[in-house]
Specification:
alpha+beta, 13% strand, 5 helices, four-stranded antiparallel β-sheet
């Protein structure tokens, strides 16, 4: 492990981490990178955040330390919403849930529509959130 010293600072070439000499100790010079923008995070982004914190801690810490966590969660939120809309439109056509059904049997239409939405969310969760 070779180090390049510059006054009281040096960079460990193996890890790329900068250290600062404080008395007898070499402390890592770690700072949080400022996030580029404050993104809005919706339901699916919050679900992904919870999953990362509980099941993928290393990935969560890396995204957080690099200042990319909010953007990543925002992108997950958008991707999930788009995927759910696509699946819903496909299932509505496939199962023939039409405006005619809505006009003739409203309760059946609501039941089928809710079922389609729930299935679409479960598919998106398995494809995007819980990976």
């Amino acid at each position: 492990m070779e180090n390049v010293k510059v006054k009281d600072r040096f960079v460990d070439e193996k890890t790329g981490i900068e250290y600062i000499k404080q008395g007898d100790y070499d402390l890592p010079n770690l700072v949080l990178a400022p996030e580029e923008t404050n993104y809005t995070i919706g339901k699916y982004g919050r679900m992904k955040l919870n999953y990362l914190k509980n099941h993928k801690k290393a990935e969560y810490i890396i995204l957080f330390m690099d200042g990319k966590l909010n953007r990543y969660l925002h992108e997950i939120d958008i991707a999930c919403e788009d995927r759910i809309k696509t699946i819903i439109s496909q299932l509505v056509k496939q199962e023939n849930v039409t405006e005619e059904l809505k006009a003739t049997n409203q309760m059946e239409w609501v039941c089928r529509t809710n079922s389609i939405k729930n299935r679409a969310e479960e598919i998106a969760f398995k494809e995007i959130i819980y990976v």
